[in-house]
Write a structure and sequence with these properties.
This protein is an all-alpha fold. Helices cover about 90% and strands about 0% of the residues. The protein has one domain: Helix Hairpins (Orthogonal Bundle). It is rod-shaped.
Length: about 230
Amino acid sequence: MASLLEKVSTLISANLHALVDQALQSNSPAVIDQYIRQVENNLADLEDAAATVGGEVRTLKRKVHEYEQKADELDQAIDAFLVEGNNAYASAAQAKLNSTKRLVETYRDQATRQEQEYQNLLSAKVKLEARLQTMKQEREELLALLELAKSKETTVKTMKSLDDLMGVGDSDISRVAENIRRRLDKATAASEMHAARLDDEMDRVLESSVIDNALAERRKKLGLDK
């Protein structure tokens, strides 16, 4: 269980900026796709582990309740045996009561530890789900950026061809080439503005971890995290 939480912790703490940069440099979303697959696989393992531990917590709590009832019955029986003057049965019942109380404490301690583990798993699950959703959004924006990059490359090639045409000398060809250049300039400017908006949105989403850390530090100072 510890190794699973360690894997999840690694995924949660992954640098999303770095992943997006790698994807942009390689001109492919493969890096992000691999990250998403890892998150989805670990999320499935988390859900299974949480269900298992949650079931164990229920079982342990039920045992605590059962043995507490048994202890109450033994306690009443001891009093009844003493009233009857049956010391032998009272002594045997007392020994059994002591053993039952130890079992209650054992199961209660196990239930407490498993409950903490269960809450840790649920917390990790929520964080990993949020991380997965964020990266899926980043992937969509990355694809848009890559399309813009391809469009930009096409524009550059076209502009180079137009530069060649501008030197031909025919006034009609030169005029047509100039008009096309103006349209391409306008399209390029529009794509740059769109890319800038995508960059701003990525920065906003990815800075959420910084905000979370700041809030955690503030809770710690206020004594809210205990």
